[in-house]
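hey team, just a heads up i'm posting the complex here instead of the shared drive bc the drive is being weird again. everything in one block, sequence lines first with there labels, then the predicted structure for the whole assembly after. its two chains so it's a bit long, scroll down
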Amino acid sequence: MSKRNILNFVFVTVLAAVFGIGCQDKWDEHLGSGSVDNSTTIAAKIAADPSLNKFNQFLKLTGYDTVLAASKVYTVWAPNDEALKNSGFDTDTTGLGAFVKNHIAVSSLDQNIGNDTLKIKLLSDKYAAITIGHFDGIEVVGSPKFVKNGVLNIIGQPNPIKQNIWEYFMSTTDASLQKNYISGFTIMVIDSANAKPIGYTSGQPKYASDAPRIARNGYWSTVADLRAENGKYTFFILRNAAFDSEADKLKDFYPNLTYWNTVLDLTVKGVYTPDKLPDTLLSIRGVKVPVNKSAIVRTYNASNGIVYVVDALPFRLKDKIPQIKIEGELPFSFRSSKAANTHYRTKLDSLGVLYKDIEIFKHATAEYYVEYRTPMAAKGKYKVFARAISGTSGDLVSAAFTQRYFVADTAATTTYPTAATFTHIVNPRTYKEIELGTFENLTYRSLRLRLVSANSTAEAVNPLILDYIRFEPILP
Amino acid sequence: MQNFIKFRKSLPLLLFTVALSYNVSGQESADSKASSDTATIVNTVKEVSHKGPKVSGVVIDANSKKPMVGANVGVAGFSATITDEKGKFTVSLPQSKATLSVSIEGYHQKLVPASVGKQVSIVLYPLEYTSQYTTADLPYQSVSKARSVAAIEVINTKGGWNANSETPDTYFQGQLAGANVIRRSGTPGMGSNIFVRGFNSLYAGTKPLYVVDGVVYDVNSYGSSLHTGHVNNPLQFIDVHDIASVTVAKDAASTAVFGTRAANGVVFINTNHARSLETKIDFAVFSGINQAVKNLPLMNAYDYRVYLADILRTQGLSNSTIENQPYMIEDSNNPNYYTYHKPATNWQNEVFAPSLDQSYSLRVSGGDNVAKYVLSAGLTDDRGVIDNTKNTRYNTRFNGDLNLTKRLSGNVNLSFSYSEQALRDQGVNFKSSPITLALVKSPFLSKYAIDALGNVSPNFADYDTLQVSNPVAILDKGINQTKALRFFGSISFDYKLSKSVKISNVTGVSYDKAQETLFIPDKGVVNDTLSTTLVAKSIHGTQSIRYYSLYDDLNLSWNKVYDRVHRLSATIGSRVHTNQTEQDYAYGINSATDNLISINNSNPVARDLGGNIGEWNVVSGYFSGNYSYADKYLLNLSASVDGSSRFGKNNKYAVMPAIGAAWVISSEDFLANVEKLDLLKLRISYGWVGNDEIGNYTSNRYYTSQNLFGVQGLKIANLGNANIKWETVRKANAGVDLSILDERLNLSVDYWNHRTSNLLTYATTATITPVSGISSFIENAGSMESQGFDFNLNGRVVSKKSFKWDAGLNLGVYKNKVKSLPNGAFITPVASGYFITREGSAANLFYGYKTNGVYASDAEAAASGLLNKLADGSLVPFRGGDVKFVNSFDSEQDVANSVKIIDENDMQVIGDPNPDISGGLSNTFTYKRWSLNALLTFSSGNDVYNYTRSVLESGSNYYNQSPVLNNRWKGDGQSVNTPRAEYGDPSGNARFSDRWIEKGSYLRLRTVGISYDVPTKMGSVKYIRLYGTANNLLTATNYLGYDPEFSASSSIYGQGVDVALEPQFRSFQLGIRVGL
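-- predicted structure starts here --
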């Protein structure tokens, strides 16, 4: 080649390089390919899978095919055709929407959970427990398919909608007494979230009489909201005979609210499946629940827990009728404000155990008192004990003194009709509790109690000190 | 030294007075027969004939291939003649062999060995041709490249009409062998960072010295700009059209006279002077369009929303919380629905917009026997591709030549330029850089505010719930303005004491001022929290930077031939240069409304005022001597003694000598019969030069103000080092120049070696820190070495009468190696990445982790047995979806504990920003009246840290991401190359690793220019030329950013880091130029 030809050749090569390399899309190479399918949505992936024909059909019927094409992250557990063979939705589509929603979760899941269990909320508002390879106990078939807007898992069984504990309880026919009693607490209230006010009175909204209403049940707020899908409970349903016998045990102690005290301890936090059921559980209130497996008539796996229908749940009376303990440092009110003389103390007793108490000293008031209120106390007799510790290191009160406890007759407010009086001689460094006497509560009620100082203004004799006072029921 | 400078300053004035008075008497005795022909200033020829053997020959025009009439032929200082109408001449030689000098206006002056009795045929090429016979006009001498001892490079600007929107420093790109010219960004007027033969310093300057019309032209920008990513470029004040010639001096022999300022080479720029007495008017208008850049691929709104859901989940938000985010709610009754569900916005399209450029230039030249002048004025209105940005520049220049008497001549060069730049923050700025924001801003948002019913307001949307500013609001309401001006004037006189002795003086003044205004609005921009815990809503800033310098160079030169074969020339002189800079700035925050933009409306409590003052003086004495024997053996000796106020008191003066020699082999007898050999020359040079960019006050201990608990005070800012001095660079150069086939093929190859000693380094010693509170001090303690090749091949590929193709290839290769450092190695962090400087390897290598894909599953990660050391020091096992980092080193402790840990010990060199090879390929095609030139530039083998992509693929925050994140690891068993998305990146998957290092090689069709010379018969119109130019037409690269060419900082530690500056863009211009 001549020199010119060589240069021509070089030039042409360079130009070819410019155009050749310039046209190649470097981004294509950089984007590369992996096992993520970025070109399809979950909806399209399901539609393209021949084993998911039925589920795809359900999605189309319910409009969820468009939802699953949206720009969000979904995790779907799609039952295959085999799993939906006997679903019954082919003939009756009632509840199909909820069924479909019960297989879809919004948002991706943490894939690095290892052996942990993940609780996720499905579109149906129900929760499902996820472990790697399982969806609420159902095994995932094959490996997950990662697509543009989420993950598709295929499962071999359907995940039908389960009732929650409340729904099951309300639908049960096993225990009319318990069911009717609790459902009797249901009232309809105005749904302020959806009702439009028609005016305001002193800033409070007024609603039309036909404003939308929703149900409220006292059990939900005082014991446990058995409808809550994100809670997990074990709930006992007593058949009528058992319910009667439990109520009968309590009627002497809770004459006016026998049934209420019967149903109060039937809910336990957490799910205790039959295989993991111990012989004693603790109710939400903290009362021991004696479980007799042989008494279980029926078990239901609700969406938010487990329900046991039982023939017997023999609570012990001593568990159902608890003692009443009043902490001195938690007063209800004072005769007058003596904040400068009132000390809330945290000290160690002779055994090194931490205790908190109240000490009122140099208040210079004859018969100064501190008032306490108790929770509901069962009817019956109680032994009364109290503990007050004085004279420990750093304590200003070192001499013995006398303080009194006045228990009110009723909850009347204006006067203070005393039903019982106890006298407590507080000797320095007495760490044991002192038995003050017995007290009979004539009905199921809350007690009022006053801690009263000596009728003197002398600081040496009128201090008040109280760690606690307790009422121990005397049971038959 | 101060007294000496005062004395030295008054010296030129004194000498000038003396010379003038001497001149009065000299004028009377002046030769009245002096030629009045000053039309050609280059060669004023009288026919003289000394007795001697004669030689005859013919001179031919290389273009037309016709004989040339009226060419000057002769032996310098001995004989001269003019060719006849057949191009023939006969001239006498001093000896039987001598070098003929052949010249004619508009052509390169050719030097041809001739011997008695042998006919010579001489081909002359026009000045536009890249020739080995180019004349380099240097301050102390004019030398033909064919006789240069030193390694110099001459750029043939050809008037610069084939280039538009260029500053001189960008114009050099691809035209200088061995100079790696990297344009800083696409922003008009930003210029480039030029590394002549690599770099010789770590912390001192890397820029070459610029000498314009014999006066040092300062190209530094003093004080950092208020605008992120911007530098004020003083070189933009020189209009490329005003440049007559550029010479780059690369080795020690050519630069030693500039002593401690010449370590990075010297660029000599000469501006236009009138060549004839005829009055000429040249007027040109150009107009062009700039094309918006090609967008980087980003996630669309659909994918981004899916990605965001993943990020929110890993942030710890529950599914229902995520579902209730306003951008996830699909209910159009939601008051925020329309804000997040209007059609997606392509933010890059909002920020980048095509724009129009304009430029006008007018030049008038002419004069008479006594005075000639060139007056030029230009207006350039260049726009960038970021919307609402521009650079409007006005430049004027007056260059005059005065022939005061036969002995005394002078010239004046006065230039004044003013520019007004509308800029935008660029680079690492996630609050107010429109480019960065356009990349990271969520695509589902709109630029306008939208109400609950979906009505679109004409007001721009505020920053969004994801804490990203609205780039369009910044483009519209933000102000990043710079107004800058420079006056640069010089006046010089030459006085001929005798035929061979001349005294010259040049005095130059620079005055430069840049005034910057900054306003970041409140609306649309994320608030900033200052160190004082104040919340900055709007930000105001103003800054004024001033530079003043006075330069004087006085020298005596002497030029004589002895015994017809010994030519001796020498220059001895002194220079003094005083410089002053001042920077004053004020920052403020929170004006009452966005309509109050100036600093005086800001909250007075939070105002921050400050500044810097710099003053330095340099005084030098220098010498340069040339000796040649028979025009075949050439020797150069030069030296400079520099004193600078910057040097420590223990090292006040630097002595920088150099020696160079050349052998013109082609003039030897044994090659006399080799046909078609025009030139073969060997060059060698060795010498010392220095780098005085060591900071004005490094040698002194000084104090800085500090605010402590609201009390202003002073504290020690540094440990003064009285021993501090210049960095010394020993430069060796060996080269060959070749020209054959009647100059059809020209080649120059140079090997060079630079050894830097006294390298400025920071010493960190644990012993001084507790005592002084200062962790490091500067000392001259390191050394490094660079070496490489420059290669320059030029030629006329096709030489037909009507069609010609000239092509040139130039390239440079360099390798750098650090020889010694006080602590062996150190690491420099830049934009979440790291550079390592270590003995035994190049000074600026990327230092990070090597990776090898992504763990497909927890099981695979566990099988690797590796533990990940997190930022808090804890060790956790890797999980599925984590990046597989390469465990390259286990410490002894780890081995003893039998654990394998990925920690900082595993960092290694992952890239090198220095190119293996860089250069350009130029082509000029001429066909009749048409001319086409095409310049290709390339850089190969350089690695780039794509910081921008590391943000767009970090998968760790709310920023929009590249589509690569669609391939992110989503679940166990997935085999992908992109790790999982996780808020905050707790596993450090996005840490600085080879994931972000890319090949930065590119080949670019940088400039294509076509021109047509319209035939004109109008008497008054001399010419009409039409121009079409395309810039950055095609770029071939595998780089994944906007463009592989950028330079965020002049430091070697900023090279190859892509921080999303305004990219290079494609532009097209049309122009017309009329000559009257």
